[in-house]
Amino acid sequence: MTEITQADLALLAFAREAQDKAYAPYSGFRVGAAIFADGEIYQGCNVENAAYGSTMCAERGAAMSAVLAGKTYFDAIAVVGDSEDPTVPCGCCRQFLAEFNPEMRVVMGGRLDHVQVSSLDQLLPDAFVRGYLDQEAAAQ
Ligand SMILES: [Zn+2]
After folding, report:
1. What is the CATH number of domain 6-139?
2. Burial degree of 99 (CB within 10 A; 0-12, 13-18, 19+)
3. How large is the greatest C-alpha to C-alpha distance in the chain, in angstroms?
4. Which residue among the candidates 3, 48, 59, 103 is catalytic per the annotation?
5. What is the pLDDT of residues 71-98, one digit of tens each?
6. Residue 103 known to be catalytic
């Protein structure tokens, strides 16, 4: 069990702020995310769509905001959703985030006070990352 720090709780507060902006008229399940990268915070919220498959998760929204600001290494991400237990990133977001640091800290919260902290490589062991593509290029 990873110890929860004041920085974790501060990042989670930014995720909760983003959660308030979520657009979730179909599921009603609001999610907020906040990425800490190079001393800055980047927020995202889930944005649903009438074509359900076009829905975007909060974590990927935050990641795109960070990349837009020129950040490609993330120290940590906080995620908070409407579940009682801490909301975990979906599989697609785990893979998406691994691109920007497979070992980043992941802080998860829900409706209640319980907070869970993990690392991305614990949530997604053996992620497919850039190194695999480099091996392929080197073999040719
Ligand atoms: Zn997701």
Report:
1. 3.40.140.10
2. middle
3. 53
4. 59
5. 999 999 999 999 999 999 999 999 999 9
6. no
